[in-house]
Fold:
Amino acid sequence: MLNRRHIRIKVMQTIYSFQGGESDSFDKEQKFLLYSLDNIYNLYLLMMSLLIEVQKRAEDHLEKSSKKHLATKEEKNPNKKLINNQVLLMLKNNVLLNDEFERRKISNWELDSEYVEIIFREILASELYSEYMQTKTSNFKEDKKFVIDIFSEIIAPNNKLYDYLEDKNLTWIDDLPVVNTAILKLLRKVKEQSNEAYFLPKLYKDIEDNEYAIDLFKKTLLNQFKFGEIIQDKTQNWDTERIASLDTVLLKMAICEIQKFPTIPVKVTINEYLEIAKEYSTPKSSIFINGILDKLVKEYQESDTLNKTGRGLM
Structure:
């Protein structure tokens, strides 16, 4: 689910909030980093559970409509296409997924059901729903397309849901695009025969990504004064007070990757931190960071001290 860029962002946020000296013990900060990364999975489960709650709300809506004192013929014999949507039922009846909801205590919509109602009402008012409900039967392909469409066009961009998630956990706003992308990828590739574990993807692609997060955090902090001196040496003509503190963190992390991670290509490191700077720092930060790193890499190349192994890593 997580990519290296988002791991870098999480490490950046943790280091930026970290106040302290150079030490070999960062237990508290490391726990925060790992919690912040693991909490992304809670957001994933929360968004998946919202799809299930929409199906449940649809069931409740049909049941109440059919029991009205003056129910219409249509209400007494409703179109059950939405509540019978095969993908939504696959999620609802997924034992492993529901066990994970319970294990991680994902029960937000029981207390905050008004957000389920907001999403449900937007679905009912949409052209997507109107077109989907023109027939009373469907196949798996059509059901899947409908779920993908309502997620990408109604749920993911919903401003009230966005505000709710921000109130619940501030870091979730940075995580939401990653989670939504992961969910859409799963929905697009799901098949009728997909097993229950399909909707429980791993947070990290592999153990190397997990180790990378911890190593990048520790090695940057353990060498922060050394990296700070390198930055200072390369910015002698700059007013240090005018250098954004976040730029300093990004530079230290980038220098750490260049020096301490021999298998990560230099171009990848530079491009990644430039993109992060564009999104999180000042308008001119990427230009500043690129200039410093470019000078540094050229020096390492000239002195043959660039610690990279394998072809194409320069």
Q: What stands out?
A: The mean pLDDT is 91. The chain is about 70% helix and 0% strand.
